[in-house]
Each structure stands twice: as structure tokens, then as C-alpha cells.
Amino acid sequence: MYQWDFGILWSYRWLFLNGLGVTVGFTVVIVVLGLVFGLFGAFGSLSRFRAVRLLALTFIEAFRCTPILVQLIWFYYALPILAGVEMTPITASALALSLYGGSFYSEIIRGGIVSIDNGQSEAGAALGMTPGQAMRRIVLPQAIKRMIPALMNQSIIQFKNTSLVSVLAVPDLVYQSQVAAHDSYRPLETYTAVAVAYAAILIPLTILARRGEKRLAVGE
Amino acid sequence: MSETSKIEIRGLRKSFGSNEVLKTISLDVAKGGVVALIGPSGSGKSTLLRCINLLVVPDGGSVRVGDTRFSFGDGSKLPDVKTLAKFRATTGMVFQHFNLFPHMTTLQNVMEGPVTVRRMAKADAEKLARAQLAKVGLAEKADQYPATLSGGQKQRVAIARALAMEPDVMLFDEATSALDPELVGEVLAVIQRLASEGMTMVIVTHEIAFAREVADRLIFMRDGVVVEEGPARQVIDNPQAAATRAFLSHFHRTGALPPATTVS
User: What is the C-alpha radius of gyration for chain B, rounded to an integer number of angstroms?
Assistant: First the structure.
């Protein structure tokens, strides 16, 4: 029977906290940047212009249909050779994760917009609104409510995907725990603690999101 | 007639793919006139109505409402979104399925056009919106959301929303077709009062008795063409074309309108 000893992890607390800080900070960056890419992808794929639609769809499918691990390695090793720009592991992984997340956000945002009955924007147009006004005043406020659960879900996946940046030696929680595990010869305790740390952050967030959803549903 | 007409449609054509929905339609509506468009489904009457405020952009012909005229087809440039929006602001439209904005209260629904499109100050827009809601008998529902209203109440809010733009013309697209029978009367009563106040209106409807009562002209369409047109009572009581007779035989053409008990 294995003898658990979590006490040994205490001496690595600063290492873990450091890693956790990087993980959380990284998540904030890739969620925000991902949403920006997602907005461009969504509105691009709904554009009146064929070329813009094509460009947006290429972006979405390229990042949605290739594994994130491959993208991370590709951005760090291949892109500098092709584009001639050196990137730090942090820049490369932030870019790859944001674009990857952005491709999924795009589809969520696009899906939310097209799910709103056409009669809504028609009613806006009949009042004399421009398509932009109808989008901002009528369609988006309704669409965002429908997008929120899926956006939240995708952001949770983004948070967990940050664990992959350890392959590029970005010192996130997983990377630091690898260091701790090698040093302490206690991988079971280390990775159990890491899993608990991820869950401890995400579970309260999901509860908050669920409450927010209920509040948004008022008036429907 | 075209000298004084408020709406003038000439040679209007529209196809969806290979399906020719409107085949060279012309139509005049006098200022203060009420025209009823009737016909079987697929006859093109809703498309014609949507061409009047250019929710559907025609392939050919011309549309004039008031002093604004648009020509289509044969190299004429399509109007840009700003021009279209400005034009549509002068025509009110009421839809079969109401299309109220579910995320706004009744009052906000009616204020939305004046605030967003006419750039009216909130306080003025609210005053206008409350007046319009009172006019359709729903002043006390101002702070409720559309989901809490009956179909007839929703449609009256939709009419108030359109009227808040103070339009020159009102277009009704089967405004009572989605309503339970007992709720039809309250909506028709509102439309009838608008007619008596001199609003220029085009009404797509299946309420033949109502059309006979309220419209001064009636147009019967089938397969994208106008089959018969004339004074409403005359066409309904004594249709000339065989197709008109066949269509009208499905309806009670006369008799009392449905009672409008809830509108005072």
C-alpha cells in the first residue's frame, strides 16, 4: 500500500504559487485575446463579402481542426523559421492558445447571433435601424445571453489548456510541479495536488457562472 | 391619381432564385387611403408589402413613398444601408409574429425607434411612447416584458412601436393571422381607428369582412400578378375574375367584425 505524504509538498509552496500565478495570468490573457479573435472570426464569417467570409472560415477551421499541442510546437519552432521572427515561449504559446480558443469562440458567437430569429433584425430594420444598430441594440443583447454558457465552458477548457504550455518550458503550474515531482520523488502527491488546485479554482467559477445565467434569464 | 398618391409602385419584379414571385406589379395608394392585399399563400402579397419599405429589395421597377423614389434593375445602383434605413424610418410595419424585442419592456420597445433612430431625448421618447401605448389601450402594461402579454396585446404594442416613429404609411403583414380568434378583434379595432384618423395603409390580410369594412381599395393577387383590383366592397361583393370568385368563396365576406372588447 502506498504511503501518502502530502506534507512534503509544503517546502515547494512558493514554486506552486508561482506556477499558479503564471497559469491564472496566462488564462486571463488567452481568454481576453481569444474573445477578440473570436469576435473577428464570428463577424468575419457573417460578412457580406465573400473574401472576408473565406478568410474567417480558413482561420476558424485551421485552428479548430488541428491539435493544440501541435499548434504550440509549430508556433514556437516553425513560425520563427518561416516568418523570421524570434518568439519567446510565452509569446508563442499565448498566441497559439488565443488563436485556438478564438476559433472556438468564433463558432459560439456566430452560433449565438444566427440563433436569433431573423424577424428581430427585420423589426429593427423596419424601424429604420442600420444593420449595425440592429445588431448592437436588438440581436447582440439577446444573443449574448445564449452564448454565455458556451463561452464559459470554452473558457474553462482554455484554463485547462494552459497546462500544455509546459512543453515549451513556460513555468506554469504543471511545469513547476514537474520540477517539484522530480526533486521530491513524490509524483503522486504532486499531481494530485495540482489536479485539486485546478478544480478548486474552476468549481467556484462554474457556480458563479450558473448564478449569473439565472440572473440574465430574468425577463425572458 | 398618381398626382396625389402617397405610394406609387411601377413595374415591380422580384425573383427568389428561379421562382418569380412578383411579375411586373403596379400599385397606387392615395394619401389617407387603405388598400387591402388579399390572395392565397404564395401569391406574392407579403413580398409586395416588403418591397414597399424595401425590406425585400426588388429586382426591377420603381417604388415611391411620399417624395422618395427608388428605381431598380438595369444598371441602377442599389441604395446603401444608410439611405435604406432613413427611408424605412418613414414607414411603419407590423409583422404576423409581432417581432417584439423580448429583452426590453413594452415601454422600451416603443421607445427604441425614437431613441436609436430619431435620436430623441429619452424623456421626450418616453412621453411619446406612453402616449402611443395609451392609444392602443396598453398604458398600464408599460413596464411588463412582452413574454407576459397575450398575442393581441403583443400586436398592439407592435403597432404602438411602429407609430412611435410617426410614419407616413403603415404596412400590416397578416397582423392577425397568428392570433387566437378571440384576440383578433382588439387588433382590428386599433387598425380601424388608424384608418379613420386618415393613416395611409396597406394591409395584407385574410380577414375579408374586415377588409370590406375598412379598406377603400382591394387587390387580389395570385401567382405574382394582380388578378383583380377595385373598390373593396365592389370586388368582395361582386368579383369579376373566376380566380377571385373561387378564392372569396372560402370566406364569410360580410357580417359583424369580431368584437373588440378589451379596447376602450
Answer: 18
